[in-house]
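TASK: fixed-backbone design
INPUT:
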């Protein structure tokens, strides 16, 4: 008697290339969870660095999957679950251990609200469908993406580690940061999708030079550079909003003109 055994598969035999991007994603989960361990040990600098590396891996896994043609449905779902852990749960825990525990139950409520907003934001992202006539929208996210949100939530801690400015009440500053970021995540404010930026080939050398300078700054002035990066991202939010509105207006005008031509 032959039994039909269903084989458990992590990856499809038809698409073994998906193993590499999925492995990168799993590594990101480990970094997110490790950041919580660092925070428990009061090693907040390593906790922030772990989240930073998790964000880098989150950017890489999708690009690697598309580059080697190893995209898969499992990878897409795994990526979302990883984002919830690394950028929804971990940053909240870090900020609670560092400052939000000073305001008791209210601080824990902020952590829960942030984690829920992150999960809702990712669920909405997975269901977003862009029409063929509006392909320009792939350059924008709806709301602040979870990796950027993690950076914004951690910004008060990064500011403290940088030594640039000293605050007396970091619990209040952290509360404002986590509540504001939670609202931005579930909002419909368009923000730039840095994953989709295409650089012309003749600008590649300048891009590499810029990356080299930025990495050098990160090595020698880690938290100062991270804080300035966070401030620049905040300034980009209103710019992306008006840029989106402008492009949307032009797109509407073009579609109306095409409809008028079809009628004629």
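OUTPUT:
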């Amino acid at each position: 008697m032959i039994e039909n055994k269903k084989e458990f598969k992590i990856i499809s035999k038809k698409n073994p290339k998906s193993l590499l991007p999925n492995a990168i994603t799993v590594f990101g989960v480990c970094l997110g969870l490790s950041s919580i361990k660092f925070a428990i040990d009061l090693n907040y600098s390593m906790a922030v660095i772990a989240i930073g590396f998790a964000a880098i891996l989150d950017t890489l896994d999708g690009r690697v999957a598309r580059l080697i043609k190893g995209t898969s449905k499992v990878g897409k779902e795994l990526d979302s679950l990883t984002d919830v852990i690394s950028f929804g749960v971990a940053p909240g825990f870090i900020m609670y251990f560092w400052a939000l525990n000073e305001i008791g139950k209210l601080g824990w409520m902020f952590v829960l609200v942030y984690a829920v907003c992150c999960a809702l934001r990712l669920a909405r992202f997975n269901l977003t469908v862009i029409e063929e006539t509006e392909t320009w929208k792939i350059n924008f996210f709806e709301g602040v993406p979870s990796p950027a949100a993690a950076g914004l939530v951690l910004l008060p801690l990064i500011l403290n580690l940088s030594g640039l400015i000293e605050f007396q009440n970091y619990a209040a500053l952290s509360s404002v940061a986590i509540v504001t970021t939670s609202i931005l995540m579930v909002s419909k404010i368009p923000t730039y999708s840095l994953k989709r930026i295409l650089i012309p080939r003749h600008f590649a050398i300048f891009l590499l030079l810029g990356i080299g300078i930025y990495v050098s700054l990160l090595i020698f002035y880690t938290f100062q550079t991270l804080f300035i990066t966070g401030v620049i991202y905040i300034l980009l939010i209103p710019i992306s909003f008006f840029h989106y509105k402008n492009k949307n207006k032009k797109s509407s005008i073009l579609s109306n003109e095409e409809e008028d031509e079809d009628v004629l």
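COMMENT: The first strand starts at residue 140 and ends at 142.
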